[in-house]
Design goal:
- The chain is α/β, with parallel strands linked by helices and about 425 residues long.
- About 35% of the residues lie in helices and about 20% in strands.
- It is built from eleven helices and 13 strands.
- The strands form four sheets. A seven-stranded mixed sheet has the order 9-8-7-10-11-13-12.
- One of its GO terms (molecular function) is methyltransferase activity.
- InterPro entries: Prob_Methyltransferase, Put_SAM_MeTrfase, SAM-dependent_MTases_sf.
- This is S-adenosyl-L-methionine-dependent methyltransferase.
Length: about 425
């Protein structure tokens, strides 16, 4: 061993031979360093007998306790979420109807039972059972539903279409199927198409049970709703002029609207179509129209079918049973009015938008605006969809008592979205 001596004066560096004393000191220092490192290695790698006295162990123990607490909290949150979801399902009626209730019709029990898939588990969805399709709100009207399903199998169905419609209007839609035969009403005197579009038929081919009126003359003497005043008179009444002769600036002519459609108008959907006059006018122009109806105070569906056009027995709370982007034109009048809740109108408008193709037309026909708030709310909702306003008319009409009412009519074109 030696030491280094730096002589700055002459700029040289040279070794001096080490003494015996200095060598011993160096050996002692090396031994101390090695010993210290060995003890440190032992301290970190060994398992002390008393873990609780080691600071690192305390830290590890605290982290473990915190981890356990976090896991417990997460399990509690997950359990609470599951309980909340179950409560929501029970409140809204999404779960299966309680078939153990007293006076439950056997046919309802049989229909609602789950059935195994004939070929076993579906490989794509993992589903193993077929579940009956029935409206979730049926659970809230289970007594009426049980009454509806109480019939003789393979026998005649009860004359209860009005009960079925009451269930539909309460949100019990779709209704369960039944294994019975409905009453047959001979359809005598039907005319061939297109004569049938504007030809009255016998009152006897319609079902009048559950209705106040028992003939067409009675219906034509009443104003059933804003879109149907005398609308069953298709020979002499205003229906013969509707869509071809305007009575106000809000009345658009059907030929004027058809020329606005890009790529032509071939199929259309009519919401709340009265007695089917819109469909009849479109049929004269080789356009197929499906009319959404309910038999409110009149045999609407049967009357439309007798004219040779297509009625669809459906409430506006039901998702439209059509695929996306199907229709060239959708026509709606005051049937679009679903009450004072803006969310319901939003749901309906989004479903209308869903089934209307890009470039298709939405014809809003004489929609009644009782106040500026309703008109502005509808305007803002329409503008959210980005439709192009081809026609937009807000005008006044004088009703029966001589009071002025405000109506909105518009033809809107759906944009192409990315």
């Amino acid at each position: 061993m030696g030491s280094v001596s730096l002589n700055i004066g002459d700029g040289t560096a040279r070794f001096k031979r080490a003494t015996l004393c200095s060598s011993a000191v160096n050996v002692l220092m090396l031994f101390s360093v090695i010993t210290t490192n060995l003890f440190a290695l032992y301290a970190f790698t060994s398992s002390p007998k008393h873990h609780q006295d080691h600071p690192l162990h305390h830290t590890h123990k605290n982290i473990s306790l915190i981890s356990q607490q976090v896991s417990l909290i997460l399990r509690e949150i997950d359990s609470s979420q599951k309980k909340l979801t179950q409560m929501e399902k029970e409140i809204l009626g999404y779960e299966s109807i309680d078939l153990s209730r007293p006076n439950m019709a056997n046919e309802l029990k049989l229909f609602l039972q789950h059935h195994q898939l004939p070929l076993g588990k579906d490989s794509r969805t993992g589903i193993t059972e077929m579940v009956a399709s029935v409206g979730h709100s049926c659970e809230k009207s289970v007594d009426l539903l049980s009454q509806y399903m109480n019939y003789k199998v393979n026998g005649p169905c009860p004359d209860d279409w009005s009960l079925a419609q009451k269930l539909i209007l309460r949100g019990c839609e779709p209704l369960p199927r039944r294994r019975c035969f409905p009453k047959t009403i001979p359809k005598v005197g039907l005319q061939s198409f297109p004569i049938s579009l504007w030809k009255n038929v016998s009152d006897k081919i319609f079902s009048w049970s559950g209705l106040g009126c028992k003939n067409l003359e009675c219906l034509n003497s009443k104003k059933l709703n804003r879109d149907c005043a005398g609308c069953f008179d298709i020979v002499k009444g205003y229906e013969t002029q509707k869509y071809v002769k305007a009575r106000s600036k809000n009345d658009f002519l059907i030929d004027d609207v058809l020329v606005m459609g890009s790529d032509g108008i071939r199929i259309s959907f009519d919401i709340g179509g009265g007695s089917g006059t819109f469909a009849a006018r479109m049929a004269e122009r080789n356009v197929t129209v499906i009319t959404a109806t309910l038999n409110v105070d009149a045999p609407v569906s049967e009357f439309i079918a007798a004219r040779g056009v297509f009625p669809l027995y459906l409430s506006l709370d039901h998702r439209f049973p059509f695929y996306d982007n199907m229709f060239d034109l959708i026509h709606a009048a005051n049937g679009l009015d679903v009450g004072s809740r803006p969310e319901k109108l939003e749901f309906l408008m989004f479903d209308i938008d869903r089934i209307l193709r890009a470039g298709g037309l939405f014809w809003l026909d004489n929609f009644y605006c009782p106040n500026d708030d309703k008109k502005n709310a509808l305007t803002r909702l329409i503008e959210r969809f980005g439709y192009k306003k081809l026609k937009w008319i807000v005008g006044e009409k004088i009703n029966g008592p001589g009071k002025s009412e405000v109506y909105l009519s518009a033809v809107l074109q759906k944009p192409a979205r990315v």
